[in-house]
């Protein structure tokens, strides 16, 4: 009779978060955009169904972009998405590096 029963509500306390390798990719892009003068601040949210990395031009503004991780969409549209300031999904897919390319294009324009 050694079965472990979780406390009520314990399962709901699990949150979606970015893995270290995923954060490394995101922070690498973030650093390049900060160096280019495009981005200045970020925020990370770990919720029950989604993890969000929000990018800001200024701290008091709405986020310019949100990089989202939604495990429930893994087998459908893709685990990762980049969402613009207006809520429009700019890119969605299974590979984070591929999804982030939509933002790297903005870096190329900023440098020119």
Automatic annotation (TrEMBL):
This is DUF2794 domain-containing protein. It holds the Pfam family DUF2794. InterPro entries: DUF2794 (IPR021252). It comes from Poseidonocella sedimentorum.
């Amino acid at each position: 009779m050694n079965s472990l029963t979780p406390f009520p509500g314990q399962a709901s306390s699990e949150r979606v978060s970015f893995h270290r390798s995923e954060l490394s990719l995101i922070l690498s892009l973030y650093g390049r955009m900060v160096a280019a003068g495009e981005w200045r601040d970020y925020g990370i949210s770990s919720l029950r169904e989604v993890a969000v990395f929000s990018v800001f031009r200024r701290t008091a503004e709405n986020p310019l972009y949100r990089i989202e991780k939604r495990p429930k969409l893994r087998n459908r549209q893709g685990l990762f998405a980049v969402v613009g300031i207006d809520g429009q999904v700019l890119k969605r897919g299974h590979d984070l590096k591929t999804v982030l390319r939509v933002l790297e294009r903005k870096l190329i324009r900023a440098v020119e």
